[in-house]
Protein backbone atom coordinates (compact mmCIF):
# COMPACT_ATOMS: atom_id res chain seq x y z
CA UNK A 1 0.00 0.00 0.00
CA UNK A 2 1.23 3.51 -0.83
CA UNK A 3 0.83 6.72 1.11
CA UNK A 4 1.13 10.27 -0.14
CA UNK A 5 0.39 13.64 1.42
CA UNK A 6 -1.89 16.25 -0.11
CA UNK A 7 -0.04 19.35 1.01
CA UNK A 8 -2.04 22.52 1.55
CA UNK A 9 -0.55 25.86 2.51
CA UNK A 10 -3.43 27.06 4.66
CA UNK A 11 -3.33 30.47 6.31
CA UNK A 12 -6.30 30.46 8.71
CA UNK A 13 -6.98 33.85 10.19
CA UNK A 14 -3.60 35.09 8.89
CA UNK A 15 -2.44 34.52 12.44
CA UNK A 16 1.22 34.03 11.55
CA UNK A 17 3.46 35.49 8.87
CA UNK A 18 2.97 33.75 5.53
CA UNK A 19 6.67 32.79 5.20
CA UNK A 20 6.22 30.77 8.40
CA UNK A 21 3.45 28.76 6.71
CA UNK A 22 5.89 27.79 3.97
CA UNK A 23 8.70 27.08 6.42
CA UNK A 24 6.53 24.68 8.44
CA UNK A 25 5.36 22.96 5.27
CA UNK A 26 8.95 22.41 4.17
CA UNK A 27 9.76 20.89 7.57
CA UNK A 28 6.96 18.39 7.07
CA UNK A 29 8.11 17.64 3.52
CA UNK A 30 11.62 16.91 4.81
CA UNK A 31 10.09 14.39 7.22
CA UNK A 32 8.11 12.84 4.36
CA UNK A 33 11.32 12.47 2.35
CA UNK A 34 12.87 10.42 5.15
CA UNK A 35 9.79 8.42 6.23
CA UNK A 36 8.70 6.25 3.33
CA UNK A 37 5.94 8.34 1.82
CA UNK A 38 5.54 7.86 -1.91
CA UNK A 39 4.80 11.43 -2.93
CA UNK A 40 3.90 14.90 -1.75
CA UNK A 41 1.03 16.27 -3.85
CA UNK A 42 0.93 20.08 -3.93
CA UNK A 43 -2.46 21.79 -4.08
CA UNK A 44 -2.96 24.78 -6.40
CA UNK A 45 -5.39 27.48 -5.28
CA UNK A 46 -5.78 31.16 -6.12
CA UNK A 47 -7.10 34.19 -4.23
CA UNK A 48 -7.87 32.35 -0.98
CA UNK A 49 -6.23 31.73 2.38
CA UNK A 50 -7.49 28.12 2.22
CA UNK A 51 -4.16 27.35 0.55
CA UNK A 52 -1.77 30.06 -0.58
CA UNK A 53 0.04 28.25 -3.36
CA UNK A 54 -0.83 29.86 -6.69
CA UNK A 55 2.12 28.27 -8.53
CA UNK A 56 2.56 24.62 -7.69
CA UNK A 57 5.20 24.28 -10.40
CA UNK A 58 7.35 26.92 -8.71
CA UNK A 59 6.70 25.30 -5.33
CA UNK A 60 7.51 21.88 -6.78
CA UNK A 61 10.90 23.10 -7.91
CA UNK A 62 11.61 24.32 -4.38
CA UNK A 63 10.54 20.93 -3.00
CA UNK A 64 12.70 19.10 -5.56
CA UNK A 65 15.74 21.05 -4.39
CA UNK A 66 15.06 20.15 -0.74
CA UNK A 67 14.35 16.42 -1.18
CA UNK A 68 16.09 13.37 -2.59
CA UNK A 69 13.67 10.44 -2.59
CA UNK A 70 10.14 11.81 -2.46
CA UNK A 71 8.12 11.99 -5.65
CA UNK A 72 6.49 15.37 -6.26
CA UNK A 73 2.95 15.56 -7.53
CA UNK A 74 0.79 18.38 -8.76
CA UNK A 75 -2.48 17.96 -6.95
CA UNK A 76 -3.58 19.50 -9.25
CA UNK A 77 -2.37 21.77 -12.03
CA UNK A 78 -5.54 23.71 -12.87
CA UNK A 79 -5.16 23.05 -16.57
CA UNK A 80 -8.15 25.11 -17.69
CA UNK A 81 -6.37 28.26 -16.47
CA UNK A 82 -3.13 27.69 -18.43
CA UNK A 83 -1.92 28.03 -21.96
CA UNK A 84 -1.26 24.34 -22.62
CA UNK A 85 2.17 24.81 -24.21
CA UNK A 86 3.39 26.79 -21.22
CA UNK A 87 2.02 24.07 -18.97
CA UNK A 88 3.79 21.35 -20.96
CA UNK A 89 7.08 23.26 -20.82
CA UNK A 90 6.94 23.95 -17.08
CA UNK A 91 6.07 20.41 -16.01
CA UNK A 92 8.64 18.90 -18.38
CA UNK A 93 11.32 21.23 -17.02
CA UNK A 94 10.32 20.22 -13.50
CA UNK A 95 10.70 16.58 -14.43
CA UNK A 96 14.18 17.10 -15.85
CA UNK A 97 15.46 19.20 -12.95
CA UNK A 98 13.96 16.89 -10.30
CA UNK A 99 15.65 13.83 -11.78
CA UNK A 100 12.38 12.34 -13.05
CA UNK A 101 10.39 12.56 -9.81
CA UNK A 102 7.27 14.34 -11.06
CA UNK A 103 3.73 13.00 -10.94
CA UNK A 104 1.46 15.20 -13.03
CA UNK A 105 -2.06 15.63 -11.74
CA UNK A 106 -4.40 17.85 -13.74
CA UNK A 107 -7.82 19.23 -12.89
CA UNK A 108 -10.47 21.60 -14.17
CA UNK A 109 -10.95 23.66 -11.03
CA UNK A 110 -14.30 24.79 -9.71
CA UNK A 111 -14.02 28.29 -8.27
CA UNK A 112 -15.92 30.91 -10.29
CA UNK A 113 -13.61 33.60 -8.93
CA UNK A 114 -10.58 31.88 -10.44
CA UNK A 115 -12.20 31.50 -13.85
CA UNK A 116 -13.34 35.13 -13.85
CA UNK A 117 -9.98 36.54 -12.75
CA UNK A 118 -8.09 34.58 -15.40
CA UNK A 119 -10.59 35.37 -18.14
CA UNK A 120 -11.73 31.79 -18.68
CA UNK A 121 -15.49 31.51 -19.31
CA UNK A 122 -16.78 29.07 -16.73
CA UNK A 123 -19.01 27.42 -19.33
CA UNK A 124 -15.89 26.56 -21.34
CA UNK A 125 -13.75 25.42 -18.41
CA UNK A 126 -14.39 21.70 -18.76
CA UNK A 127 -13.71 21.52 -22.49
CA UNK A 128 -10.63 23.73 -22.08
CA UNK A 129 -9.34 21.46 -19.33
CA UNK A 130 -9.83 18.34 -21.41
CA UNK A 131 -8.25 19.80 -24.52
CA UNK A 132 -5.32 21.18 -22.51
CA UNK A 133 -4.59 17.73 -21.05
CA UNK A 134 -4.59 16.20 -24.54
CA UNK A 135 -2.27 18.91 -25.84
CA UNK A 136 0.22 18.59 -22.97
CA UNK A 137 0.50 14.84 -23.46
CA UNK A 138 0.88 15.24 -27.23
CA UNK A 139 3.53 17.92 -26.74
CA UNK A 140 5.54 15.54 -24.56
CA UNK A 141 5.03 12.51 -26.74
CA UNK A 142 5.47 13.94 -30.26
CA UNK A 143 8.72 15.26 -31.64
CA UNK A 144 6.85 18.20 -33.13
CA UNK A 145 3.32 19.18 -32.17
CA UNK A 146 0.54 19.64 -34.67
CA UNK A 147 -2.87 20.30 -33.18
CA UNK A 148 -6.20 21.58 -34.44
CA UNK A 149 -8.81 21.83 -31.69
CA UNK A 150 -11.66 24.05 -30.58
CA UNK A 151 -9.60 26.36 -28.39
CA UNK A 152 -6.02 25.97 -29.65
CA UNK A 153 -4.26 25.33 -32.94
CA UNK A 154 -0.54 24.64 -33.33
CA UNK A 155 1.55 23.78 -36.34
CA UNK A 156 4.99 22.16 -36.26
CA UNK A 157 5.93 23.33 -32.75
CA UNK A 158 8.88 21.65 -31.07
CA UNK A 159 8.05 21.81 -27.36
CA UNK A 160 11.22 21.66 -25.26
CA UNK A 161 12.38 20.23 -23.00
CA UNK A 162 10.84 16.82 -23.22
CA UNK A 163 10.27 15.16 -19.82
CA UNK A 164 12.98 12.95 -18.40
CA UNK A 165 10.43 10.20 -17.74
CA UNK A 166 9.36 8.60 -20.98
CA UNK A 167 7.02 8.80 -22.70
CA UNK A 168 5.96 11.31 -20.03
CA UNK A 169 5.54 11.65 -16.25
CA UNK A 170 2.86 9.45 -14.68
CA UNK A 171 -0.39 11.32 -15.20
CA UNK A 172 -3.67 11.55 -13.29
CA UNK A 173 -6.79 13.63 -13.75
CA UNK A 174 -9.00 14.75 -10.89
CA UNK A 175 -12.43 13.19 -11.31
CA UNK A 176 -15.31 13.46 -8.85
CA UNK A 177 -18.52 13.38 -10.92
CA UNK A 178 -19.71 10.35 -12.94
CA UNK A 179 -19.27 12.18 -16.29
CA UNK A 180 -15.70 13.12 -15.39
CA UNK A 181 -14.93 9.57 -14.29
CA UNK A 182 -16.42 8.18 -17.50
CA UNK A 183 -14.37 10.58 -19.64
CA UNK A 184 -11.14 9.67 -17.83
CA UNK A 185 -11.88 5.96 -18.19
CA UNK A 186 -12.66 6.34 -21.89
CA UNK A 187 -9.27 7.95 -22.46
CA UNK A 188 -7.42 5.47 -20.25
CA UNK A 189 -6.28 8.14 -17.79
CA UNK A 190 -5.69 7.29 -14.15
CA UNK A 191 -7.75 9.33 -11.70
CA UNK A 192 -7.37 11.10 -8.38
CA UNK A 193 -10.44 10.46 -6.22
CA UNK A 194 -11.66 13.49 -4.35
CA UNK A 195 -11.37 14.17 -0.61
CA UNK A 196 -14.93 15.38 -0.06
CA UNK A 197 -17.27 12.51 -0.93
CA UNK A 198 -18.23 10.10 1.81
CA UNK A 199 -16.43 6.79 2.17
CA UNK A 200 -19.23 4.75 0.61
CA UNK A 201 -19.14 6.95 -2.50
CA UNK A 202 -15.43 6.25 -2.89
CA UNK A 203 -16.16 2.60 -3.53
CA UNK A 204 -18.95 3.46 -5.99
CA UNK A 205 -16.69 5.82 -7.92
CA UNK A 206 -13.82 3.35 -8.01
CA UNK A 207 -16.08 0.65 -9.42
CA UNK A 208 -17.56 3.07 -11.97
CA UNK A 209 -14.05 3.91 -13.11
CA UNK A 210 -12.86 0.30 -13.32
CA UNK A 211 -15.97 -0.67 -15.26
CA UNK A 212 -15.36 2.21 -17.64
CA UNK A 213 -11.76 1.18 -18.21
CA UNK A 214 -12.83 -2.35 -19.08
CA UNK A 215 -15.61 -1.14 -21.35
CA UNK A 216 -13.18 1.00 -23.34
CA UNK A 217 -10.47 -1.66 -23.53
CA UNK A 218 -8.00 -0.19 -21.02
CA UNK A 219 -6.20 -2.30 -18.43
CA UNK A 220 -6.62 -1.58 -14.72
CA UNK A 221 -3.56 -3.53 -13.56
CA UNK A 222 -0.66 -1.56 -12.19
CA UNK A 223 -2.55 1.71 -11.67
CA UNK A 224 -2.30 3.77 -8.51
CA UNK A 225 -5.67 5.37 -7.74
CA UNK A 226 -5.02 7.80 -4.88
CA UNK A 227 -8.00 8.36 -2.58
CA UNK A 228 -7.71 11.67 -0.73
CA UNK A 229 -8.93 11.99 2.87
CA UNK A 230 -8.59 14.67 5.50
CA UNK A 231 -7.03 13.04 8.56
CA UNK A 232 -7.07 13.96 12.26
CA UNK A 233 -4.97 11.91 14.68
CA UNK A 234 -4.48 12.50 18.41
CA UNK A 235 -3.55 10.51 21.50
CA UNK A 236 -7.16 10.46 22.72
CA UNK A 237 -10.40 9.95 20.84
CA UNK A 238 -11.86 13.16 22.25
CA UNK A 239 -8.89 15.26 21.16
CA UNK A 240 -8.92 13.68 17.70
CA UNK A 241 -12.58 14.56 17.31
CA UNK A 242 -11.93 18.15 18.38
CA UNK A 243 -9.11 18.48 15.85
CA UNK A 244 -11.24 16.82 13.18
CA UNK A 245 -14.14 19.21 13.79
CA UNK A 246 -11.80 22.19 13.57
CA UNK A 247 -10.36 20.96 10.27
CA UNK A 248 -13.79 20.12 8.87
CA UNK A 249 -15.12 23.56 9.80
CA UNK A 250 -12.24 25.22 7.97
CA UNK A 251 -12.86 23.09 4.88
CA UNK A 252 -16.62 23.65 4.90
CA UNK A 253 -16.19 27.40 5.26
CA UNK A 254 -13.69 27.48 2.40
CA UNK A 255 -15.80 25.48 -0.06
CA UNK A 256 -19.39 26.19 0.94
CA UNK A 257 -19.35 29.93 0.36
CA UNK A 258 -21.66 32.14 -1.66
CA UNK A 259 -19.60 31.67 -4.85
CA UNK A 260 -18.98 27.93 -4.66
CA UNK A 261 -22.09 26.51 -3.01
CA UNK A 262 -24.04 24.30 -5.36
CA UNK A 263 -21.29 24.01 -7.93
CA UNK A 264 -20.90 20.73 -9.75
CA UNK A 265 -18.36 19.21 -7.38
CA UNK A 266 -18.83 16.97 -4.40
CA UNK A 267 -17.47 19.67 -2.13
CA UNK A 268 -20.51 21.76 -2.97
CA UNK A 269 -22.63 19.19 -1.16
CA UNK A 270 -21.05 20.34 2.10
CA UNK A 271 -23.35 23.34 2.04
CA UNK A 272 -26.41 21.42 0.95
CA UNK A 273 -26.94 18.79 3.64
CA UNK A 274 -30.32 18.57 5.25
CA UNK A 275 -31.23 21.67 7.23
CA UNK A 276 -31.37 19.65 10.43
CA UNK A 277 -27.85 18.26 9.99
CA UNK A 278 -24.63 20.09 10.77
CA UNK A 279 -22.41 19.86 7.65
CA UNK A 280 -19.28 19.85 9.84
CA UNK A 281 -20.62 16.90 11.82
CA UNK A 282 -21.47 15.05 8.61
CA UNK A 283 -17.99 15.72 7.26
CA UNK A 284 -16.30 14.41 10.40
CA UNK A 285 -18.54 11.34 10.57
CA UNK A 286 -18.75 10.29 6.91
CA UNK A 287 -15.72 11.74 5.14
CA UNK A 288 -12.71 12.12 7.40
CA UNK A 289 -10.39 9.52 8.88
CA UNK A 290 -10.03 10.48 12.53
CA UNK A 291 -9.19 9.00 15.92
CA UNK A 292 -6.27 7.64 17.89
CA UNK A 293 -3.43 6.02 15.91
CA UNK A 294 -4.92 2.57 16.54
CA UNK A 295 -8.37 3.69 15.40
CA UNK A 296 -6.92 5.29 12.26
CA UNK A 297 -5.12 2.03 11.43
CA UNK A 298 -8.44 0.19 11.78
CA UNK A 299 -10.25 2.69 9.54
CA UNK A 300 -7.61 2.41 6.82
CA UNK A 301 -7.74 -1.37 6.97
CA UNK A 302 -11.53 -1.21 6.67
CA UNK A 303 -11.23 1.05 3.61
CA UNK A 304 -8.84 -1.42 2.01
CA UNK A 305 -11.46 -4.14 2.38
CA UNK A 306 -14.59 -2.12 1.65
CA UNK A 307 -13.61 0.37 -1.08
CA UNK A 308 -10.40 -1.13 -2.51
CA UNK A 309 -8.07 1.47 -1.05
CA UNK A 310 -4.54 0.93 -2.33
CA UNK A 311 -3.13 4.46 -2.20
CA UNK A 312 -4.13 6.81 0.61
CA UNK A 313 -3.58 10.48 -0.14
CA UNK A 314 -3.49 11.97 3.35
CA UNK A 315 -4.37 15.55 4.17
CA UNK A 316 -3.52 15.93 7.88
CA UNK A 317 -5.45 18.79 9.46
CA UNK A 318 -2.82 19.55 12.12
CA UNK A 319 0.91 19.18 12.60
CA UNK A 320 0.35 16.73 15.45
CA UNK A 321 -1.89 14.67 13.16
CA UNK A 322 0.91 14.51 10.61
CA UNK A 323 3.53 13.49 13.18
CA UNK A 324 1.38 10.83 14.84
CA UNK A 325 0.36 9.42 11.47
CA UNK A 326 4.00 9.29 10.34
CA UNK A 327 5.31 7.78 13.57
CA UNK A 328 2.52 5.40 14.59
CA UNK A 329 0.28 4.68 11.60
CA UNK A 330 2.53 4.58 8.56
CA UNK A 331 4.88 1.89 9.99
CA UNK A 332 1.90 -0.47 10.42
CA UNK A 333 1.55 -0.71 6.63
CA UNK A 334 5.16 -1.23 5.61
Give an overview of the whole structure.
The protein is an alpha/beta fold and 334 residues long. The chain has one domain: Luciferase-like domain (TIM Barrel). Strands 1, 2, 3, 4, 5, 8, 9, 10, 11 and 12 form a ten-stranded parallel beta sheet that branches. It has helices spanning 18-35, 56-66, 84-97, 112-117, 125-141, 178-187, 199-215, 237-255, 279-286, 293-307, 319-329; strands at residues 2-7, 39-42, 71-74, 77-78, 102-107, 145-148, 153-157, 171-175, 190-193, 227-233, 289-291, 311-316.
What are the key terms here?
alpha/beta, TIM Barrel, 11 helices, 17% strand, globular
Strand and helix order? EHEHEEHEHHEEEHEHEHHEHEH
Number of helical regions: 11
Number of domains: 1
Q: Over the alpha carbons, how many angstroms does the gyration radius reach?
A: 19 Å
First-residue to last-residue Cα separation: 8 Å
- Let me know the number of strands: 12
**Into which percent range does the helicity of residues fall?**
40-55%
Tertiary shape: globular
Average pLDDT works out at: 93
Strand content: 15-25%
- Per CATH, the superfamily is Luciferase-like domain
CATH topology description: TIM Barrel
The main sheet comes to: 10 strands, parallel
Per CATH, the architecture is Alpha-Beta Barrel
Which regions have little confidence, pLDDT < 50, spanning 5+ residues? 258-275
Amino acid sequence: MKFGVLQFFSWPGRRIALPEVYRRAMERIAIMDASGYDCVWLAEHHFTTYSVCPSIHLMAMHVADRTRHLRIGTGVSLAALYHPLRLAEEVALLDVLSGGRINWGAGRGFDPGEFAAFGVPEAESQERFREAVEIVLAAWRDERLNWSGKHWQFRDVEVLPKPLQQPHPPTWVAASSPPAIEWAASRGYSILLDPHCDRADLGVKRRLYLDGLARHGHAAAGRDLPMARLIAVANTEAEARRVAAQGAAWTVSAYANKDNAGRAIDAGRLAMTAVDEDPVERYVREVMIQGTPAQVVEQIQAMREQVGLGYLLCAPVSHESFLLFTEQVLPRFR
